[in-house]
Structures are given as C-alpha cells and as structure tokens.
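A quick aside before the break. I want you to see a complete sequence-to-structure record at least once, exactly as it would be stored in a machine-readable document. Don't worry about memorizing anything.
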Amino acid sequence: MIVEKWLSKKPDFKGKFLFVDFWATWCGPCIASIPKLNEYHKKFGDRMVVVGLSDETENKIRSMKKPNIEYFSAIDTKKKNEERG
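That is the input. The structure line, written in tokens, reads:
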C-alpha cells in the first residue's frame, strides 16, 4: 500500500492485519460501508488496522462530514496503488 499523505495519524502496523478500503466520496456503496468499517476499527483495532485510501484530494475528503470516518485515513492522488496492480 502506497500512501501519499496520511489524513489521520499514521497507524502502527507491527504485528497486525491490514484491512485497506479503496473508496471515494462519490461512491454510494463506499459511503454506506463506513459505519461497518468504524465497527471493525473499534472491535478489532488491537489486532487489525483499518485504512480508508482514496485517490481524491485532501480537501475533497475533508469536505465530507457524514458519515464520520473513525479509522485511519489516507490519500493516493497520484494513483500509485493502481500501478502495482
């Protein structure tokens, strides 16, 4: 996973599973999954890191007020993760 910028603090990955959600503010199913991902973060945070990764700008992500993302958040506007295929 390539992160251009963390919008939250950078998580400690050591010894934990990594759950990456590739999402966008315009994606209805992505928005609908945020409450469930918040639950996963709370329930499994001691052994799993949940990261929401978007290729949109920081301003676009921060302008979305609801639902609130409680897990780790980052952007990849240069779409480096797509290059890794």
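Two observations worth writing down. The chain is about 30% helix and 25% strand. The beta strands are 5-6, 17-23, 48-54, 72-75. We'll return to this after the break.
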